[in-house]
Amino acid sequence: MSLFHRPAASRRFIASAVASIVLGGALSAVVTSPAQGADNVTLNLIGINDFHGRIDAKTVKFAGTVEQLRQDGGSDNSLLISAGDNVSASPFASAIQNDTPTIDVLNALELDASATGNHEFDKGTDDLLGRLTNEAEFPWLAANIFDAQGDPILPKSATFAVDGLDVAVVGAITEETPTLVSPAGIAGLTFTDPTDAINETVAELEALADPPDVIVASLHEGAPDGTQTYAENVEHSTTFKKIVEQTDSDVDAIFMAHTHQAYAYDAPIPGKTGKTRPILQTGSYGANVGQIKLTVDAVTGDVQSYTKQNVARTITADGDLTAAFPRVALVKDIVDNALAFAATIGNQPKGTQTADITRAFVGNSEDRASESTIGNLVADALLSKVGDTPSGADIGVVNPGGLRADLTYAGTDGTNTDGVITYAEANSVLPFVNQVNRVTVTGVTFEKILEQQWQRDAGGKIPSRPYLQLGLSKNVNYTFDDTRSEGERITHVTVNGQTLDPAGSYKIATFSFLATGGDNFRAFTEGTSVDTGLVDYEAWIGYLETNSPVSPDFARRSLAATGLADSYQAGDAVSFTLPKLNLTSLNSPANTSVAATLKYGSGQTADLGDFTVTGGSATINFDLPAGVVGAATLEINASPSNTRASIPITISKAPTVTTVKLSPHKVVVNRTKVKVTLTIKAAGFTVADGRVQVMDGSEAIGVGTVRHGKATVRLTPFTSVGSKTLTARYLGNDLAAPSLSEFRLNVVRK
User: Fold this and answer.
1) CA distances (Å), origin 104, targets 55, 97, 101, 123, 513
2) Is residue 184 very low, low, confident or very high in pLDDT (cuts 50, 70, 90)?
3) Based on the domain organization, do 431 and 537 belong to the same domain?
């Protein structure tokens, strides 16, 4: 139950309650309001997505931005639509009350409809269909979720009467949902392709006796990179490509979500040459609010023109916003009450820190494809806490999507001074309440887990987030080359300084979500999983309490090394690149140099030099030292981050070339003792020693010793005349490989 004011039924429900009815096979929620009528009607569509329970000091400004856009387009002409993930992965103020404050805020803002996001399933289907549905004064929509009987579990669409037009909103969820939530929570459900489901629902709507004039898709799926162009995202994501190129042409606008990217594209409408429609995602956490204005012919329902934009959260003072907008005043009351309640628990100090410890970022957006200081610290915590249990642990692993907040050094007030980590701050990092499991795997399986950072879903498709960077405990390091073939990108792994044993047994401390194969890390299910009895946030907070102050570790635990071969020959020139040396967590230092050392033999080392880092990348060039063969290790140390890596290589003997010179040129039978001079050369060094043979077929007819790359062999006189084909053979030494050279001579009578 909410501890604070819940808004009364909004304007949407005054004229008609939401009813779920089957129309031509489509489960729909229909909402009406008075019509106004005009030759052209401008619909003001306001979009939000991935709010994730952001009940904090910015919530009032988020609400104010919604209201400013509602005012801009006219309240009676506006629809407020969410593309899902309204709740869960929430900050403490919302999470501590099961996200009821967030639902109250959305009710106060009179959210008209919401697509269902994968995080709406974090507490299971029963929670969504029960508590969340009961608390929400708006319909949750999902055209592509079906129960065991094949029936939709939620309305596929909701239709609104806006200024004389019927506007249908069709909702859908990412097909990846089974890999993103606990399997137990969605048992018996089927998630189908969202594009196909939207198109089927559109066909059902168009088949109605009174079809809608305008159709809007609200889809919890999105483009992988908002900094890229529309064409680049189409090229890089098969999921996004299908959505934008195959969604029915009767869909007039598409709101997107899930990938936490901000973009507003003009997307070509399939089958309508030269025409486009708006496609928009706002990013996440209320940082932006989307607006699409459709100018629609009131008679035909055709879109005449449109505008689209993402509007940054307003900076207008809260007092001005609450005075101007009654809905914002309601939101402020809800937020104030939620923050006050959370403070009674949330302000308790649980640890201290010396500096910011954060997720990775691209610009202002979190980057789940990059290593982070917070991810590695949480992995350290899991290893430590599970390591303290009788079963123990060898490795800590966390997924980036499980990390939902940063630990910032700056304080606020009261007990939360600079460097203090409060209960609320710590809890916000891990808000999902996962069990902590210990999964025992082989070295082969652990390497497979690392390979699955390059994502494929169970059907083999690349998802909208094609790469997810795991956080690892500090005793684990690996190198990779993402230019290699899939399944061969992890090039070397060490645990506690020792090369990963493929047949060895390793105990991984991780979230139950990963242990059951979540986020497409299905290799975890090859191991044996045991519930440790620990809960993620409790283990995390316990670690902070006993290990404070904690500090960011800017040393990478994963290191990209491209162009480096597994083996070389003695004396070879070596060149490879370290393209991603710097972390992107807040305040990560820019590396300036890389020191490279070669370890070989029985403890010998060779200094290969220092190499400049530019833009986070360094190219390493050197010649392998003369006289080094066998197993060797490249030691890399980047400064000032102290990123280190040990990369094994094999150095084989240098290839040699043997050339022959004969003296004299005239060879007389039974008389001439031919002098054969052999020159043996190797790239990079002089062949110091070894033995040579001159062979007549399988018989050695002369032998010699190499000194400084040369050898001389005196042959006994030949006893028969004619052409002779002989072979000069160098037998090799510790550094130089064998080689041979065939030559001819002619034996005459006189």
Assistant:
1) 11, 11, 5, 18, 28
2) confident
3) yes
